[in-house]
Every structure is written in C-alpha cells, then in structure tokens.
Amino acid sequence: MKTMKFFQTQEISIMDVEVGMIVAREILNNRGVVLIPRGFVINDPEHFVDMLSQHSVFTVLIQKPSESSIDEDIVTEEETSPTALKIVNFVKNFDSKRASLKKEFEKIINGDNLHEDDLVNKIQETLEVFKEDINIFQLMQKIKDLDDITYAHAHNVTLIAYSIGKWLDLKPQDLKDLSLAALLIDIGKIQIPTVLLNKKASLTNDEWLELQKHVVFSYDLIKHYDFIAERVKQAVLLHHEKIDGSGYPMGITGDKIPLFARIISIADIYSALTAKRAYRDKKTPFEAIKIMETQFIGKLDTNILYMFLNRIGDYFVGQMVRLNNGETGEIVFIPKRNIYRPILKLSGSDTLLDLNSPENSGVEMEEFY
Predict the structure, then answer these.
(1) Considering the entire predicted model, what is its pTM?
(2) 288, 233, 220, 289: which is closest to 261 by C-alpha?
C-alpha cells in the first residue's frame, strides 16, 4: 500500500464545479451531439457553467483529484471510439456502394428499364448510416478525400437533405421522395463535357450557360419514369433556383420554388463548398458556414438556412483541427453568434482559445482531422 493520487467520481450541479475537476462522462446536447468530451479539465468554471446553461445542461459527472492509500495494481485501458470505428468501416465499404449506385445511374442514362425497388434500395443503402448513430458531417469529411467526386457529392447531398428533412419533421414518404431527388440532382452532368466540369480556370459566360443545362438534362432523364413522383422531378429540375430570382433554369422566386428544391439547394451548396474541385481546394466546414451565412442571405430559404447552420455547428464539437499558426486543438464549444468562430482547447494543455476574441482575429482553422 502507498499513498497515491486518484479521482473520486460523482455527479454534481454545474454550479458546484471547481478548478481542476475533470469531466468523467462526455456531455451531450439534446440531440446527442457531444458538447464537452470526457477528460476535459475545468479551468474556468464560470465559462463552463455559461456554456452548459445555454444547452440546458445542469448536472455533470466529474472526477475530483484526491489522495488515499490504495493498491498499486491499477488497470488502465484505451478506448477506441465506436463512432470512429463505424466511420472507418463505412469508408471501407464505400467503393461497393459507389459501384452499385453507378449501375442504377447507367440504366437511367441509357434509358434502360429501371425498377422502383432498385432505387429504393439505393436510398436505403445511403441512409443506413443513420441507423448506426454516426456523426454524418464528420463522416462526409472522410468521404470527400476519395476520388469519385460525382458519387461522393450525390451521396453527401442526400445525407444532408435527409437530415434537414428530419429537422423539419417531414413525414416518412416525404423523406423518401426528398432523398431520391437529392440522389438524382446531378445525373444529367453526364451530358456536360468533362473538360468543362474539370476546368480549373473561370468559366466563360457561354460555358456557364452550358453547365446550367445539367438540371434540364437530369429532368429529361427521369421524367418518363412513372414511379418517380412529380415533386421529385421538380426538385431535380429546380434545385438551383434562388429565392431572389437569380437562379436557374426558370428564375422563379420565393415560395414558388418547391420545398424539396429549397432544401436540396442548401445541401448542394454545403457539399460543394466542402469538397475539393478542379478549380479550388475544399473549404473547411466552418469556412462553408461563414460563406453560406454571409453570401447567400436572400438567395436561400432563410428559415431553413439558419436552422441548418445552427444545427451542423454542434456536430463538430470534439473535432480536432489544425490552425494556421501551427497549433492544434479540439473544438469544445460553438457560440450562438458567429458559429464559424468556435472555442478550442489547445492540444497538450488545458488552454481555451476563443476564436471570437479580437486578439485571435488572425487565427483560422486550416484543417480538420
């Protein structure tokens, strides 16, 4: 026996937390997203309480350092995140899912006989990730590193659109049709010259007009399938329309744009911004959030857009990032304002870095890993 430091674990009110206490169990918000990871050391109780109060969390399981006479035989074990393992397994199976969906796309492109059950199965395969309780927005960061941009984009737009639909409390059949539309939005790009799709320089006006035709091409490829609902076809055709009338192909405005198209437009833009393109590197999720909040106001459905931006920020709590000053850290809190400037805990210390603070105005998140 010898005197050693150990930790007492107990659940307490957040008002009773003290400096040096350690969070013993990850703290989740009401949607199951991690707010504070297990092992977080509390150095600023006032900030800690304020953070959790905003999410209506009022108790916390903590470990408090203590000393006692105990046996030296202490067993430690490393935990492997179940979510991380699920993401790895999902990415491993990505190639087979991609090949399977390509076969169905080729049937549509070639005008072959296509069965409703085949498309329904593809939707179910795409959405099965939700059954595994995987953080889909972190999952998409892994998928975007793969080569097949067309399939990855279709896959990711479907996941995002489905998530938005769930947040809007859409009915099961609505979610099914929304997901099918999202999966098919870019199928018409097969008729756009590859050299145009992969061009690194800015498009000329004529090239831009040519690229816009893909929505009509997509619609034409699916319009003769009777089992595809008309609202699915309309969402495919109109997902590039904008609330202010600046979109295409018809330039319609406001509520004249169908709900599915308004949802998919947001999903499409976020997925495109956070994916690598021939003409630019991919944006980080928070760069995408900033762009959507500052450059698309008045162009996207405002209510859906702000709901989306506020929701997805929480999905990146616990995410490790690399900063432009060479430091690394973990996202521990997403503020209600300036979602794209979160609070980080720097690696190797318990220092919190608030990207909203004026002194940190030049610090940016460069890489998520």
Answers:
(1) 0.74
(2) 233
